[in-house]
Amino acid sequence: MKAAVTTKAGNPEVIEIREVDKPQVKTGWVLIKVKAFGLNRSELFTRRGDSPGVVFPRIQGIECVGTVEEDPSNTYASGQQVAAIMGGMGRFFDGGYAEYVLAPIEIIFPFESELAWEILGAIPEMFQTVSGSLDQALEIAAGETLLIRGGTSSIGMLSCQLAKARGLTVIATTRNTAKKQALIDNGADQVIIDDGSIKEQVREIYPEGVNKVLELIGTRTLKDSLKCIAPKGMVCMTGILGNEWTMKEFTPMGDIPSLGRLTVYMGESENLSKESLQDFIDDVEKGNVKLNIDKVFELSEVAAAHQYMEDNRAKGKIIVKL
């Protein structure tokens, strides 16, 4: 089969298209014919060599959608539509950047849909991350104010839509003034141009601060996001768009405001139910949710897609369709 193989840690050009052996089916695993997959920021870090325990060469890809090729357990029928999400895929065993992937049955999610594969490819990891961040971590509620730091990312765009549907007021940020209208069109009530310090801009709109912050930039802006919350407000760090994992200095009793709360979301496949994924796919199919897909690449273009992601050029999800 053809696969996009990350040959070693490095820049996007270390990803090469190669002919490799098709995975051999084994008990407890399902062989999937890959139809599409989304690119994720964590895959950029893995490619750079920043994910502990990853051995190269490696076929990356923490998610995919496709059809069942073979399931020894007969849990899933041949040709059945499925998604595979995380569980070490693309890091500790070969992942979705290929024509076929062998994945543990525990991370397989069946679904039924008439949507195009490139649309379905955008859904699994994005929905898992958004639903986990908003509901499990931030525990959003109608009437609250939500600040989305990194609003033009695929996670940010979907979070805005779901939060608005739940009755929240949303403030979204972008560093690029050219992307402001895209955030407004996506439903944001206010847009702030982010120069790394937005506390004063937020306080001008909400003097007491916002109730919740979804931090998608990461450690670079985390301290500033904590300064934006109201008493008993909460910040959830989910993304690392700023490309920095750690902070040089952090003083909990200085950087976290009194009564403020800081959490993170690092969800896995077990944080997502098969029913909720199907319900979300149905909502997309009905037009209740609009997915922001920025660009669709081919398998032969995975290296270029990684460069596109690294350059922060996307205003939504980047997809590879086979």
UniProtKB/TrEMBL annotation:
Q: Which UniProt keywords apply?
A: NADP, Oxidoreductase
Show the SUPFAM superfamilies listed in the entry: GroES-like (SSF50129), NAD(P)-binding Rossmann-fold domains (SSF51735)
Task: Note the SMART domains from the entry.
Answer: PKS_ER
- Where the record annotates domain Enoyl reductase (ER), the positions are 10-320
- GO MF, one example: oxidoreductase activity, acting on NAD(P)H
The record's annotation in PANTHER family points to: QUINONE OXIDOREDUCTASE PIG3, QUINONE OXIDOREDUCTASE PIG3-RELATED
Q: What is this protein called?
A: NADPH:quinone reductase
Task: Please report the organism this UniProt entry assigns to the protein.
Answer: Flavilitoribacter nigricans (strain ATCC 23147 / DSM 23189 / NBRC 102662 / NCIMB 1420 / SS-2) (Lewinella nigricans)
